[in-house]
Amino acid sequence: CPPGWTGTRCQTKCPHGTYGQDCARNCTCQNGATCDKNDGRCECEAGWYGMYCSKPCNNGRFGWRCQQICACKNNATCSNVDGSCAC
């Protein structure tokens, strides 16, 4: 079977948490990230970045690929996921 597939006719995608040839490799993605079934690359959830999605957005940023800028005032803490402010 090509990477990402398994079964007697290669008809089944790799189960969650596995990837590669015969689905023999374990995904190492963190914080809810999805793992590419072919090569194991991680697609990070909002608020996270890095090879394994293990790093939170830097202070002042949030969202998918940390592209949005926080608007919190008076030294409130900004959520790296959704930009909500906590006093």
Automatic annotation (TrEMBL):
Domain EGF-like: 1-11, 19-54
InterPro entries in UniProt: EGF, MEGF/SIB
Keywords attached to this entry: Disulfide bond, EGF-like domain, Repeat, Signal
Keyword Signal: yes
Keyword Repeat: yes
Disulfide bonds: 1-10, 44-53
Superkingdom as given in the UniProt entry: Eukaryota
Name of the molecule in the record: EGF-like domain-containing protein
